[in-house]
Amino acid sequence: MDRNISSLNHTSIQTPLPPNTTANINATVKPFSVFDGCELYVEGILFDLTLQCINVFIGIPANILVIAVLIHNRKEASTSDIFLGCLAFLDAYFGVMTPIVILNLYTWGSQKVWSSIKFSYGVKDTSGPLFFSCICLDRFMAVLFPITFGQLKHIKYRLFLTVIVFFLTFAYAAAKTVGGLPNFEKVFTGEILAAFSWMVVCNASILWALKRSHSAGKDEMHPMKKKAFKTVLSILCIIVVNYLPPVAMFPFEDIYTPDVFRCYVQPVGFAFVNISSTTQPLIYLTRLEKVPFISDACIKKWGSCISSDNNTNNKSTTQQNQSA
User: Fold this and answer.
1) What is residue 55's predicted lDDT score, i.e. its pLDDT?
2) What is the DSSP letter of 324?
3) Cα 270 to Cα 61: distance, rounded to the nearest angstrom
4) What pLDDT score was predicted for residue 9?
């Protein structure tokens, strides 16, 4: 779905003329269209909406569970948990907006609702890269500059960064909702390029430092360093999978025709960013040694069921081989 074009509703509201237009004020203006010129190229938009539906059924529960886990573990909180919590909250909010997008697309056709949808897209565009950048900065300081990190470990520094990120996020989202700013799409391209470069450099430096300390010391990596290594590696996977496609495609807008860029390149690129609302909480949950709110009895029972099924399948396979 192209976030930089006014699409996704069927209202007959006329598109306003640009402020510097010299056209006759009484001229007929093209009615507001759901696909805004992409009527014959809807595949990219539908691909984006499909991934957003995954956020509804998987991403929202996963993000709520992440928030619950962070609250449950608040006495043993990591320094970057505040960033993870804010990111999970905003990702859950973005997932909640998807049914509203679909209802406005096929039922309501409200311009005011479309404005709130554009605001949620602006929040998603900015919150993910900025909060991930804060998490990478936190891990970078902890591994490469532990003394300085210890001096800046107080939560007030994380709160300060969080306030800045929220301010930038809502400022970007408000500007996106108002629209009409020249070359506004270049802001996201610049932001995603800068954030992607910073996160890759940070994580690569952390991985290199951890591997170097491991090879220069004992055979086994320290448990805390091993945990940090897994955390940084998972973040690097999220960065590459969710942010590399727009980074690779958006800066080369000039080589595409306008229709191809609006109807295919942008929706597909944003789709990979959108699905991070699901991949990020799932990867965080898989890193946990134990998920709260799920008793050990349930885990053992689930594990024993899997083991019994595997044993049954193995026995049946052995009997079939013997009979053959």
Assistant:
1) 94
2) -
3) 22
4) 34
Residue 150 exposed, middle or buried by CB count within 10 Å (0-12, 13-18, 19+): exposed
Q: What is the C-alpha R_g of the chain?
A: 24
Cα separation, 11 vs 105, whole angstroms = 9
Q: How far apart are CA 79 and CA 228, in angstroms?
A: 12
Expressed in angstroms, the distance from the first to the final Cα of the chain is 55
Bridge partners, residue 14, by sequence: 31
Q: What is the mean pLDDT of residues 122-129?
A: 93
CA 228 to chain centre: 21
Burial of 180 (0-12, 13-18, 19+ CB in 10 A): exposed
DSSP string for residues in 170-226? HHHHHHHHH---TTTHHHHHHHHHHHHHHHHHHHHHHHHHHHHHHHHS-SSPPHHHH
Domain 43-289 listed as CATH 1.20.1070.10: yes
Sign of CA dihedral 255, 130, 43, 47: positive
Strand partners, 31: 14
Residue 242 near residue 19 (C-beta atoms within 8 A): no
Tokens at residue 122, please? 């602006």
Could you read off the pLDDT of 181-239 as tens digits, one per residue? 888 878 888 888 999 999 999 888 988 888 777 655 555 566 667 777 777 888 888 88
In terms of residues, how long is the chain?
A: 324
